[in-house]
Amino acid sequence: MLELKNIYKTFNKGTINEKRALNGVDLVLNEGDFCTIIGGNGAGKSTTLNAIAGVWPVDSGSIMIDGIDVSGLPEHKRAKYLGRVFQDPMTGTVADMEIGENLAIAARRGKRRGLKWGVTAKEKEQYRELLKQFELGLEDRMTSKVGLLSGGQRQAITLLMATIQKPKLLLLDEHTAALDPKTAAKVLELSDKIIEENNLTAMMVTHNMNDAITHGNRLIMMHDGKIILDISGEEKKNLTVEVLLQKFEQVSHSKFTNDRVLLAE
After folding, report:
1. I want to staple 21 with a disulfide (CB 3.0 to 4.6 A). Which of 47, 157, 184, 208 is the partner?
2. If the chain, 265 residues long, is cut into consecutive pieces of 10 residues, what is the mean pLDDT of each piece?
3. Bridge pairing between strands 226-232 and 218-223
4. How many whole angstroms separate alpha carbon 265 and alpha carbon 263?
């Protein structure tokens, strides 16, 4: 479903702030893979997701989604293949529109639009059923403005909007980092449920080692713009934070020093 071949990206090239962000990234995700990505600051985690989404062009290498080369496509033309949820719950929804209207925008993305606007009764019933699974009471607040919701409720709506058309690839960029632990756990539970039920291919960047180990069927660790560990199957099921740190030190020949990640164990 996704193939990255030898991806390089350098920011501020030729200046004193030059930074090699991606340093020959190779990755293949099969259909239905749920891959978590962990690493320290500047490891290349979010940069990899931005490269896939087409936020900016890569310097070299190719990006294939479901057999289609999207390397030269701008961000808006890649959007039809992708669903994305960002760290900030304020991103991805329209604050002064109702829950139902936000969902309608996502459901109609890429389709022909006529003169008629408004959420039909059939759509409302469909959205109500989808919202019910969240167990957040949102199905009874369809006419509420999204801007009035809590961060967790808003992120749940964003997750639903990102997956309502069953994208080829779902990108979760630290989508629970701004939430309190209880709400974050609920949003992760919803993410697992939606990914599994729809057999979505997904990538989740996280700074929490436990979350990276607990969720998904593959774990990737990045360091200095490269993938240095790719763990799946039984090895991932038996993985612990201590073992992961040991593996990091063996492969990178350095200590893992990122406090934010270590504190999130």
Report:
1. 47
2. 93 89 94 92 90 92 92 87 86 84 80 58 83 83 86 87 89 88 86 91 92 93 92 89 85 64 49
3. antiparallel
4. 5
Q: Write out the two tokens for 89.
A: 């719950």
Written as one string, the DSSP assignment of 32-89 is T-EEEEEE-TTSSHHHHHHHHHTSS--SEEEEEETTEE-TT--HHHHGGGEEEE-SST
Answer whether 10's CB lies under 8 Å from 20's CB. yes
3-state class percentages of the chain: helix first, strand second, coil last, to nearest 5: 40, 25, 40
Write the CATH number for 40: 3.40.50.300
Q: Which residue has the tokens 């639903």?
A: 160
Separation of alpha carbons 174 and 176, rounded Å: 6
Contacts for 66 with CB less than 8 Å, ≥ 6 apart:
1, 81, 168
Structural domain harbouring 197? 2-96+165-263
